């Protein structure tokens, strides 16, 4: 069977479709989507596939808590559509039928794939574009509906999450975020048993704040510690407090609870979207690499104390600059500090090889590739330490040269 790749953008919006999707109960989105696609495009079959927590497979949403047979999130027509984030049209054994796989993505966060079986005569480029717009509308409804039903969260699971992992996934903002100035892709392992690693972000009109946190310990103790640290950072950030003071207030909150017996290593970054200036506080051990053109450099930051290690620790901000085309990769201790069974450290050489090999890949795929390389180095998917990777591609804002050029007199 063959396949062809199409574009993503659609030319016409779907206000009536969106309102009809919003009007149904959360659990009825798939059935409603199938009815709408049959009505609008003559679709014969519709399947919603969601990426599992480790992003290894796409699982069909069927009669939960059971799901249909999963398919690869990286290979085959559906996996290709998920990886490249473009529609893939797959020929079937019946020449009169084609299967269209459409990315389900919300503001850069990849949720899964919508697969639609159509008559070949209906699968023209304009229809594929319109179906892509429909998939986007459905993705937003699935993300919203997940606040009110467990249906879609259950469908993402190939096995049961530990309680600590359940807490961590509920704390995370997602696994990606995109706007014209940047694209973020993140990955976390062991996905079904993670404890203390976390990444977080928040954007405003002119700034992006990004943090990577590694709570001390394992399991539920690490998860509780990280929840406190991340919640304290969010509380301070939402109060409009500067980056260094965010760290200081979170440090006080963690110390007040644990008295220095447990602490959280955290990297805090605040990007000025207009200038590319980055303010940073390195409160612990996460590392940050910058890829610029063909070079890979460790961003040298002053190592300050982890949050909660001592009472009333003062923190200071540093600044560096990112340029259009730069890629930043932040790694928790569980990545750069992991050793293989023979005691070999997952060090600079292996990491730089992966980052070089994935330079043209998306931030999502680069983050996944780093964790895959770590698992191969470790020799098992059952990592003994959490591993968080956040990859950010920076575009920035184009300078309006017309405004900078003096008008002739």
From TrEMBL:
InterPro entries: Bact_Sigma-Reg, GAF-like_dom_sf, PPM-type-like_dom_sf, PPM-type_phosphatase-like_dom. Residues 179-394 form the PPM-type phosphatase domain. GO terms for molecular function: phosphatase activity. SUPFAM superfamilies: PP2C-like. The keyword Hydrolase applies. Keywords: Hydrolase. The keyword Iron does not apply. PANTHER family: STAGE II SPORULATION PROTEIN E, STAGE II SPORULATION PROTEIN E-RELATED. This is Phosphatase. It comes from Streptomyces fodineus. The lineage of its organism: Bacteria, Bacillati, Actinomycetota, Actinomycetes, Kitasatosporales.
């Amino acid at each position: 069977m063959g396949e062809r790749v199409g574009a993503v953008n659609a030319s016409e919006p779907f206000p009536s479709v969106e309102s009809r999707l919003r009007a149904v109960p959360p659990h009825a989105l798939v059935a409603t989507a199938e009815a709408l696609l049959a009505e609008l495009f003559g679709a014969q079959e519709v399947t919603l596939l969601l990426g599992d927590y480790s992003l290894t497979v796409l699982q069909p949403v069927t009669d939960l808590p059971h799901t249909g047979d999963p398919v690869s999130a990286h290979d085959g027509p559906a996996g290709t559509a998920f990886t490249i984030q473009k529609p893939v049209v797959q020929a079937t054994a019946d020449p009169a039928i084609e299967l269209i796989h459409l990315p389900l993505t919300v503001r850069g966060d990849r949720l899964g794939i919508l697969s639609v079986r159509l008559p070949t005569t209906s699968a023209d480029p304009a229809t594929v574009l319109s179906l892509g717009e429909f998939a986007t509308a459905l993705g937003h409804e699935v993300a919203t509906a997940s606040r009110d039903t467990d249906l879609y969260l259950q469908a993402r699971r190939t096995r049961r999450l530990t309680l600590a992992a359940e807490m961590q996934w509920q704390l995370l903002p997602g696994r990606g975020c995109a706007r014209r100035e940047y694209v973020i892709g993140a990955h976390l392992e062991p996905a079904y048993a993670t404890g203390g690693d976390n990444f977080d972000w928040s954007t405003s009109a002119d700034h992006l704040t990004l943090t990577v946190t590694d709570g001390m310990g394992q399991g539920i103790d690490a998860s509780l510690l990280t929840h406190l640290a991340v919640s304290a950072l969010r509380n301070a950030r939402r109060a409009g407090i500067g980056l260094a003071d965010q760290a200081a207030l979170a440090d006080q909150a963690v110390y007040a609870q644990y008295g220095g017996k447990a602490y959280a290593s955290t990297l805090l970054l605040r990007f000025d979207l207009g200038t590319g200036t980055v303010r940073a506080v390195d409160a612990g051990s996460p590392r940050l690499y910058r890829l610029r053109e063909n070079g890979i450099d460790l961003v040298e930051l002053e190592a300050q104390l982890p949050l909660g290690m001592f009472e009333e620790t003062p923190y200071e901000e540093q600044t560096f600059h990112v340029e259009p085309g730069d890629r930043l990769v932040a790694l928790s201790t569980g990545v750069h500090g992991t050793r293989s069974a023979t005691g070999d450290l997952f060090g600079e050489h292996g990491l730089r090889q992966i980052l070089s090999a994935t330079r043209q890949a998306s931030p999502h795929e680069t983050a996944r590739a780093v964790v895959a390389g770590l698992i191969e180095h470790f020799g098992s998917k059952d990592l003994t330490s959490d591993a968080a990777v956040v990859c950010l591609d920076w575009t920035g804002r184009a300078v309006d040269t017309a405004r900078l050029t003096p008008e002739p007199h």
